[in-house]
Amino acid sequence: MIVGIAVALPAHAQSLRDAVEAAWMRQPLAQARPARAEEFAAKRDATQALFPEPPSLVVGNRDDRLHRNEGARELSAEIALPLWLPGEQGRQAAIVSAERDQYDAALAAAKLKLAGEVRDAYWQVRLTENELALARRKVEEAAVLAADVERRVKAGDLARVDLNQAQTAERLARAALAEAEIKTFRARQGFKVLTGLSKLPGGEETLAAQVAPLDDHPLLAPLQRAVATAQAKLNLATQSLRNNPELELGLRRERGLFDEPYAHSFEVRFRLPFATDARNKPRIAAANGEMIEAHAAYNLERAKAAAETEATRRELEQARTVVQLTEARFALAADTQRLLARAFALGELDLIARLRAENERFEAELNFTRAKLEAMRAISRLNQALGVLP
Q: I need a labelling partner for 122 at 20 to 30 A (CA). Which of 44, 147, 338, 364 fits?
């Protein structure tokens, strides 16, 4: 039977944290969490059961009807009760507990990774929307300039070639606008598919004030729990060296001839499997291998987390420097554009120089606004590298 879970999501999130929560509720891992909780509860109950395996019942009948037919009869019923080995119950419980902790840590790590995807999608939309807004303004300015040039051409102040250049610049601006619209649409669709939200949340992230030590990083927690799980399995493999013994209790009712009365007997047997290398060596080797892999994976991921944190710190520093440089360039380009626009209006400058100044100012403003957004995205990426949710 398949059980469906319907989750109502808001159409608009108030913050990036809300967007992450909305995206998380759409994930299969989040929707399956109640069922997995029941699974671990059932496993825990199994470790507290009276028997490690289900008891079994054997019922038999034996007689001599097919050969002598002298009335020999034997009816028997036996029940086999598997028994825990000394300490096995606690070791099995330790494995279940470690696996539950590992699962919970894996959920937290998966949510952090999803937060990184939401952050990237969010900032991609912000960047494309910024480009779209500037492209729209450039189209408006290019249209105004083309209309002014057309008026001056009709008045005889400018040549026909100037109008061609102005109209070409307007067409280029409109083409750039169409491209920006497609980019923005794709970015918005990506964010909507990921989160189910039709609008972006408001506000930006601030750099986390308090950061947990690297060893407590959410991405490292599942690997730490994997080491604990492997250790628990190794303890079981090295200390529970035989299959579970069985206590067999039986009742027997039998007679030898037709005229003999039935005799009744009670039987008790104890079955103890031997500890053999054929059984234990593969299990111990597998547990050792799992332990080695878990340690190696943890050490590797820890090095990656440390490197990513350092890289994002440097990216933030560089992004802040780029903001200062692009701001200065934009101020110069804007001032130059104003001066050349005034000169063009007075007839002291040709159209090519005016268009060049317009393009330089547009590029400078685009780079400056993009740099500011990249600096804010660098803060978001550093928080992500530090393991901090929005």
A: 364
